[in-house]
Amino acid sequence: MSTVHVVGAAGYSGAQLAALVDAHPAFTLGQVTARADAGRRLREVAPEYRVDAVLQELDLDSVGPGDLACVCYPHAEAARVVGDLVDRGVRVVDVSADHRLRDPALYPEWYGFAHPRPDLVAEAVYGLPERYRDAIPAARVVANPGCYPEASLLALLPVADLVTDVVIDAKSGVSGAGKTPTAAVHYCAVADSVAAYKVLAHRHTPEIAQELGQPVTFTPHLVPVDRGLLASCYARFTGDAPHPDDLRQRYVDFYSGHPFVEVVEQPPGMRAVQHTNYAQVCPMVDSERGRLVAFGVIDNLGKGAAGQAVQNLNLMAGRPETEGLA
Ligand SMILES: NC(=O)c1ccc[n+]([C@@H]2O[C@H](COP(=O)([O-])OP(=O)(O)OC[C@H]3O[C@@H](n4cnc5c(N)ncnc54)[C@H](OP(=O)(O)O)[C@@H]3O)[C@@H](O)[C@H]2O)c1
To answer: Is the pTM of this model over 0.90?
Structure first.
């Protein structure tokens, strides 16, 4: 049994993660940490998960080599804690953005802080098993993908070398913003409305571009649902547009052996993946205009955060990739 600590367990992704680890047949839930809620049971803070563990302040003296941890802090806060844990021999899945960008110089530009541990940025493995499955098991730091990048990349990676001029129009449920209320995510701002935000400036743009190997135009929207994220992606084929059957077969082949990605024939909706670690992707061809139209849908707290983190923990611990997630 591997011990898994969940740092920031009172937040949306941390609480979901703690519940998945608690129910996992090969993991023991270690520290579940919180600041303001320290001393309370997790089930009091997040009753939907029914986890009895008591939240506590992070105790770095009680972690050690062989342990695994997931850090579910906001960016910049996470980088510091990930470094402290790795220095004590703990292998970490960072659910924040702090180890996703390979170039440390991008952190001041996009996240507003100078990265304290460029050495760990350099060695971190991007935690998308559909692309980096072979590198994840030995990693000390796995950078869980962002929720928008996860859905967008799964929709686009099979044709990354065939397309250019990529446009991603994405919609996220409100839990993507975390548990701290702000005016922008207030019920009255979100209910019965849909709006774009952070246009041409969202922090997930360089992450998607890095993994896709080309620039993208990315526009996120907030939609009045709790959980779920849909990326509608458009791109121009650089050569002849493939036949729809050939395009679909390319996706089926790409995701063969990847148990959490389903290639579907109709544009998928959030309902199909909510509360799961599954992603659905659907590629289509606009033959007249030589364009790809591809959809990717996930649960932002599932394959977009906590489920993806457990999938990575499974690989790091040498367990079956689907354990505790099927
Ligand atoms: N929500 C999603 O769909 C999603 C998806 C993918 C990735 N992520 C990333 O995962 C991380 C956690 O996201 P979340 O949505 O779970 O956030 P959240 O609900 O706001 O939870 C964040 C937790 O971090 C702790 N924390 C520590 N230092 C903090 C600080 N200075 N300010 C605020 N909170 C602090 C808080 O717990 P205490 O106050 O108890 O310490 C809080 O419970 C973020 O980096 C986010 O970008 C989120």
So the answer is: yes
How many domains is the chain partitioned into structurally? 2
What average pLDDT does range 134-148 have in this prediction? 98
36 lines ligand 1 (CB under 6 A): yes
In a domain, 136, yes or no: no
81 in the same domain as 202: no
Distance CA(312)–CA(315), nearest Å, equals 5
Alpha-carbon gap, residue 304 to 64, rounded angstroms: 28
The predicted pLDDT at position 326 comes to: 82
pLDDT at 186: 95
Instruction: Give 175-194 pLDDT, tens digit per residue.
Output: 999 999 999 999 999 999 99
Q: Which domain holds residue 212?
A: 148-300
* Percent of the chain residues past pLDDT 90, beyond the cut: 100
Non-local CB neighbours of 56 within 8 Å, separated by 6+ positions: 31, 32, 33, 34, 38, 39
Nearest Cα residue to 5 out of 111, 81, 102: 81
Establish if 315 belongs to a structural domain. Answer: no
What is residue 136's three-state secondary structure?
coil
For residues 167 and 147, give the distance between their C-alpha atoms in angstroms, rounded to a whole number: 17
What average pLDDT does the structure give for the chain?
98
Hey, which of 5, 7, 13, 96 would you mutate to test ligand 1's pocket, going by the most ligand atoms within 8 Å of its Cβ?
A: 13
Q: Residue 300: CB within 6 Å of ligand 1? A: yes
Model pLDDT, residue 11: 98
Kindly state the helix (H) or strand (E) to which residue 188 belongs, with its residue range: helix 187-190
